[in-house]
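Action item from last week, closing it out:
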Amino acid sequence: MKLWGFILLELAALGSVSGLLVLGAQRVGAGFAEAHGASERAAREPAVVPRPFDPPPVAITTTATGTFMGMKDELLIEHMLTAQVAEAKHNKGGSSISFRLTFSDGSRAAFKPKQTNPQTVPRKEVAAYRLNRLLGLNGVPPATMRTLHRSDLIGKLPPDTSFMVTRIEAETVFDEEGFTRGEVSYWIPAIADSHLDTLEAVMTWWHWMTIGEEIPPEKFAMMAQLSTLLVFDMLTNNSDRFSGGNMMTSLDGRTLYYMDNAFGFQLDPEGHLKCRTYLTRTQKFSRRLVTALRTLDATSYRRALDGDPGVLSREEIAAVMLRRDATLRYIDGLIKQHGAARVLVFP
């Protein structure tokens, strides 16, 4: 019998679509440069693969739980961990290996196996999901680690994609028994291009996000989500956001999804140049998110990761906390200069 809740959820998400563009890194914002100094690190410019964001953030909790697209995280995770794979379709585009799994009941999930591509580290997708929920956000879809056999992936490829077998075998890390440990996350049924990463769009929202400038009322909710996304990318050190294809929304354009979090969590204490650059393109932030950042600590994050042991090392968690500190220094510098009311403008 099919799990109709999952099927109906995916059907409800279908509608109209849009496209997608890219923008490279820009110079570091002056405000952040003053707060953090000038030391920069060399960066890689990779491309990755799948998913998210939704309502406004709430106060921080001690566990990473929540809902996504109206369904409880626990329900989605349990299903993704136990459902039988009926088909594994290799995702087109990107420079790494990822699959769209179709389960026997018709529901779907994204799967990123352990692989040789350094730009895709599956455990980091799970780490991003757990941090997202810990901060009271629901932009990243439920994700957890799962082990699959070669027969669940290569053995379930559609006949017309059998030509991919050689590449999958070469880049996926299988053990002697044919198993690979990877990350499985909820597959968003339909997405659209936000166009927030085009040069014209960046220049426009950069203007809106500057203190003293007005945000059009119809853009306020999306700007709130974008501001929080830029903070989140700084915490996770995800320099891949503006490399193309990672600024997607729901079909109605109201919900910004956090896509492609499998590259990040490097040990840069003040974040990658691109992360700092885009963070400083906004001077307006969520009051609840800033409160959550002040509460966030290594102990609560380690506790949130208990469900997926080994997802992050102590050094990687410590680096997240250092980037939290750097982010708060930047925001607090703005508050000191302009006042909290002009900086913490989003709920």
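Closing note: The chain has a mean pLDDT of 84.
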